[in-house]
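Morning. Coffee machine broken again, so started the prediction first thing and wrote up yesterday's gels while waiting. Chain of 108 residues, entered below exactly as on the submission form.
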Amino acid sequence: GIGERWGENGNTPINFVQGAGPGVTVHVVGGACDTLPWKVQVYETDQLVVLGARPDAPPYPTPWTWQLGPGGCTSNAVDRPVDVVLAAPIGDRLVVQAWSGAPVPQHD
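Came back before lunch.
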């Protein structure tokens, strides 16, 4: 499926998309201790805008443990806005998450 394009690295939840495009802000659900920038990959068709989000870093054998240190981290979610330029405005297209196919809410 479409989600396979990103594999395990595109499965971060997306809270909502702000704007109508072509420039939009994708609000990714990150962790309180995430220190890396976030990357949003986009796949567009006439009917869909598919978004996959992940930390912009190379994969590690034991994800996240390298950045937490000995003290660990809280498990609360934090909004991480990422600016993206689409090929065209969203219009009537459905915006979905790559990993689940779930619709992504849109806000002005």
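The CA atoms of residues 25 and 76 lie 21 Å apart. Going to sketch it on the whiteboard this afternoon.
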